[in-house]
C-alpha cells in the first residue's frame, strides 16, 4: 500500500467518528489529523522557499548599471556639483504656498496690464473674455486707491488698450477733465460744458436711434426717456422724490411742448408747467400742483444754473466715435450742476447703449463719490450696472477709498443700499494703496484675508491687489512712455509743460 493510500485512510478514519468510539481510538484519530496538517504545512513551506530561491537567483543573474552610473561621457553629469541658494521661511508661509507658489493667471487672451508680482509672469485682463470663459458673471469693476497711487493711469490704460479690440469708451462725467486729452489722442471727442462757453446741451434732444427701431417703438422710447429725464432733473434740483401731481404736471407740459415744436427745448416745458394750457387745466389747479417743480426747473434756464440748458444743443453725442467724454472741470465747484449734467449725459448714453448693434463699451465713472450723492443719478447708475450684461458694457467705478460708500445716505437708507449693490454687482475689485485707518473698512467690504489686508499699506506706485471673484493677484501696472506722458496728472505740480 502506498504512502498516499495510507494517508488517505488515516484522514478518512480521523474524520469519521463512530457512534461508540473508545477514548484510546479518539486520541489516536486526533494525533493522526495533527500529523496530516503538520505535513501539509511543511510541504507549503518548502514550495515557498523554492520560489524565493528561484527569484533570488534570477535577480542576481540580471545586469544592472553600477551605483555610480556609467563611466566617462556616458554618465551625462556636469563636472561640478549643483548648488542651490538656501531659502528660509516660516512653516506657516511654506504650508500655505506648497506645492504651488503662485496663481496661474487669467489666461493670455485680453488686454495686457503688467506683471504678476508673485509669479513674475504677464497679467492680462478683459471682462468680456472672462465672462465668455465663465470665470466671472458680472463685468463691472470697482477701483479704489489714494491720491497718487496710480489708479487713474490704470483706468485709462485699460480702456485705451481695449480700443484696438473694437471696444468704445464713454465717460459720462469727468469732474477734473483728466480724460479730455486721452479722448482727443485716440480720435474721440470731449464735450466741454461750463459757464461762459458757447456749448449748449438740450436735455430733450432725440439722441441716438437704433436702426432696428420702428417709428412707433422710437416714438414710445423717446417720450418715455424725455419724461424720465425731466423728472430726474427736477428731483436733482429739489433734492426729493416728485409727487404724483408733479409728475402729471410734467407729463402734460412736455406733451404740449412736443406738439408745438419738433425738437422742444427746456424753456418751453418750464413755461407750460408754470402756465399750463387752459384745455389741460380748466380749474387752474395744475399750475398750483406744478409750481415747485416748475421753479426748480427754471433754475436750469434762468437761474444760477442758466446758460447750459436754455437752447438747442450745439454739441452732439456721436456713439460711433471710439471715445466720448463729458468734461465737467469748468463747473466742478457746483455739485448740483455736475449732477444735472451727468443726468443729461446718462440719458444720451442710455439711448446708445440700448442699440443692439452698438458693440461692447466701457463706461467710466470717475470721482464717483461726488456722483453718488444724488438719488436720481444713483438710481440710473444702479440700473446700468444691473443691465451691464444685457447692454454688453463694463462699468468702472473709480474713487479714493471704499469707506466713501458709507457717506452715501443714512445707515439703512435706500441710497446706502443702492451704493452697496454697486459693489456687490462688481466681481472685479482693484485696490491700490490705502491708508492704515482705512484697512478695516476695506477688508470688511471686500472680504479680504489678513494677509491681503496687510499688503495694502505697503503697495508701491502702480501696484494693486486684484480680486477677480474668489482669486487674488498682486499686479505691477506697466506703462509705455507715450502712455505715461498722455496719462500724467501731475503736470502742474511738477512744472511739466
From TrEMBL:
Coiled coil: none
Residue segments, region Disordered: 1-45
UniProt xrefs under InterPro entries: P-loop_NTPase (IPR027417)
Gene3D superfamilies: P-loop containing nucleotide triphosphate hydrolases
SUPFAM superfamilies the record matches: P-loop containing nucleoside triphosphate hydrolases
Molecular function via GO: ATP binding
Ranges of compositional bias, category Basic and acidic residues: 1-26
UniProt keyword ATP-binding, yes or no: yes
Domain of life: Bacteria
Keywords: ATP-binding, Nucleotide-binding
Keyword Amino-acid biosynthesis listed: no
Protein's UniProt name: ATP-binding protein
Amino acid at each position: 500500500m502506498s504512502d498516499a493510500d495510507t494517508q488517505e485512510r488515516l484522514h478518512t478514519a480521523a474524520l469519521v467518528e463512530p457512534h461508540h468510539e473508545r477514548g484510546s481510538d479518539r486520541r489516536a484519530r486526533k494525533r493522526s489529523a495533527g500529523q496530516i496538517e503538520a505535513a501539509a504545512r511543511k510541504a507549503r513551506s518548502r514550495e515557498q522557499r523554492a520560489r524565493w530561491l528561484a527569484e533570488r537567483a534570477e535577480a542576481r543573474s540580471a545586469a544592472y548599471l553600477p551605483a555610480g552610473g556609467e563611466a566617462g561621457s556616458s554618465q551625462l553629469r556636469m563636472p561640478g556639483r549643483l548648488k542651490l541658494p538656501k531659502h528660509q521661511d516660516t512653516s506657516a508661509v511654506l504650508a500655505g504656498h506648497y506645492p504651488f507658489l503662485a496663481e496661474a493667471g487669467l489666461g493670455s487672451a485680453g488686454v495686457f496690464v503688467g506683471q504678476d508680482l508673485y509669479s513674475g509672469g504677464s497679467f492680462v485682463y478683459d471682462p468680456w473674455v472672462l465672462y465668455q470663459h465663465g470665470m466671472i458673471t458680472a463685468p463691472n469693476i470697482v477701483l479704489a486707491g489714494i491720491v497718487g497711487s496710480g489708479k487713474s493711469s490704470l483706468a485709462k490704460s485699460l480702456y485705451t488698450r481695449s480700443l484696438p479690440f473694437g471696444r468704445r469708451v464713454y465717460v459720462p462725467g469727468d469732474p477734473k477733465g483728466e480724460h479730455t486729452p486721452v479722448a482727443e489722442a485716440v480720435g474721440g471727442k470731449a464735450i466741454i460744458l461750463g459757464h461762459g462757453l458757447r456749448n449748449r446741451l438740450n436735455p430733450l434732444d432725440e439722441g441716438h436711434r437704433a436702426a432696428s427701431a420702428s417709428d412707433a417703438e422710437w416714438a414710445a422710447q423717446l417720450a418715455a426717456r424725455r419724461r424720465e429725464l425731466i423728472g430726474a432733473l427736477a428731483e436733482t434740483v429739489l433734492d426729493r422724490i416728485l409727487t404724483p401731481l408733479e409728475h402729471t404736471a410734467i407729463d402734460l407740459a412736455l406733451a404740449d411742448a412736443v406738439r408745438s415744436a419738433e425738437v422742444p427745448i427746456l424753456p418751453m416745458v418750464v413755461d407750460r408747467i408754470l402756465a399750463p394750457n387752459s384745455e389741460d387745466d380748466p380749474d387752474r389747479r395744475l399750475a398750483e400742483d406744478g409750481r415747485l417743480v416748475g421753479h426748480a426747473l427754471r433754475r436750469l434756464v434762468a437761474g444760477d444754473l442758466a446758460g447750459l440748458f436754455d437752447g438747442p444743443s450745439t454739441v452732439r453725442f456721436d456713439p460711433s466715435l471710439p471715445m466720448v467724454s463729458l468734461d465737467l472741470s469748468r463747473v466742478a465747484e457746483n455739485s448740483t450742476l455736475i449732477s444735472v449734467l451727468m443726468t443729461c449725459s446718462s440719458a444720451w448714453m442710455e439711448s446708445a447703449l440700448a442699440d443692439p448693434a452698438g458693440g461692447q463699451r466701457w463706461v467710466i465713472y470717475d470721482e464717483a463719490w461726488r456722483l453718488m450723492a444724488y438719488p436720481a443719478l444713483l438710481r440710473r447708475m444702479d440700473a446700468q450696472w444691473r443691465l451691464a450684461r444685457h447692454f454688453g458694457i463694463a462699468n468702472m467705478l473709480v474713487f479714493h477709498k471704499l469707506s466713501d460708500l458709507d457717506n452715501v445716505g443714512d445707515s439703512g437708507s435706500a441710497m446706502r443700499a443702492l451704493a452697496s449693490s454697486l459693489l456687490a454687482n462688481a466681481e472685479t475689485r482693484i485696490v491700490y494703496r490705502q491708508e492704515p485707518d482705512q484697512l478695516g473698512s476695506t477688508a470688511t467690504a471686500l472680504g479680504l484675508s489678513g494677509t491681503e489686508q496687510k499688503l495694502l499699506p505697503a503697495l508701491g506706485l502702480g501696484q494693486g491687489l486684484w480680486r477677480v471673484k474668489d482669486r487674488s493677484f498682486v499686479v505691477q501696472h506697466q506703462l509705455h512712455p507715450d502712455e505715461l506722458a498722455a496719462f500724467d496728472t501731475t503736470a502742474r505740480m511738477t512744472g511739466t509743460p
